[in-house]
């Protein structure tokens, strides 16, 4: 479904796998859970924040921890979504995070769009 909306998604086995690939790819947005093997989602957000990353982060989790949520949001997390979430809602949040109306774009390469937007600045 996300591919039909123009979103090219890449899945990783965990935060460390994502971080090792980060220098080699351009990402428009990161969707992460809090509970993951190895480094948890909050540690990942802290690592990105410490590195000065401006990558929008959306947390999609079942963790009901207000302090953890508040810390993630204080670090610049774009949104904290509680599972279950509808595809429509996730697409809305992703669209807002990457600066497009993802729900209305079909067959659009989001990464090319982001590159085009950056070159116009």
Largest β sheet strand count, sense and barrel closure: 3 strands, parallel
Low-pLDDT stretches are 101-116
Q: How many strands? A: 3
Structural class: mainly alpha
Strand adjacency order, main sheet = 1-2-3
Q: State the CATH topology.
A: Rossmann fold
> Could you tell me the radius of gyration in angstroms?
14 Å
CATH architecture: 3-Layer(aba) Sandwich
Describe the structure.
This protein is 40% helix and 10% strand. It has 121 residues and is mainly alpha-helical. It has one domain: Rossmann fold, CATH 3.40.50. A three-stranded parallel β-sheet has the order 1-2-3, sandwiched between helices. One of its GO terms (biological process) is phosphorelay signal transduction system. This is Response regulatory domain-containing protein.
Features:
CheY-like_superfamily, mainly alpha, 40% helix, 3-stranded parallel β-sheet, phosphoprotein, Rossmann fold, Response regulatory domain-containing protein, Sig_transdc_resp-reg_receiver, 10% strand, Bact_response_regulator, 121 residues, single chain
Topology overview:
Blueprint: H1 15-21, E1 30-32, H2 41-50, E2 57-61, H3 66-74, E3 79-82, H4 87-98, H5 110-120
Parallel strand pairs: 1-2, 2-3
Pfam families: Response_reg
Modified residues (4-aspartylphosphate): 33
InterPro entries: Bact_response_regulator, CheY-like_superfamily, Sig_transdc_resp-reg_receiver
């Amino acid at each position: 479904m996300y591919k039909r909306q123009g979103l090219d998604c890449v899945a990783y086995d965990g935060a460390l796998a994502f971080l090792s690939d980060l220098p080699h790819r351009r990402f428009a947005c990161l969707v992460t859970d809090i509970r993951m093997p190895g480094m948890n989602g909050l540690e990942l957000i802290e690592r990105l924040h410490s590195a000065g990353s401006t990558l929008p982060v959306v947390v999609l989790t079942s963790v009901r921890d207000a302090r953890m949520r508040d810390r993630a949001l204080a670090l610049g997390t774009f949104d904290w979504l509680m599972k279950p979430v509808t595809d429509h809602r996730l697409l809305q949040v992703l669209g807002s995070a990457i600066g497009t109306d993802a729900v209305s774009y079909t067959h659009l390469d989001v990464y090319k769009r982001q590159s085009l937007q950056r070159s116009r600045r």
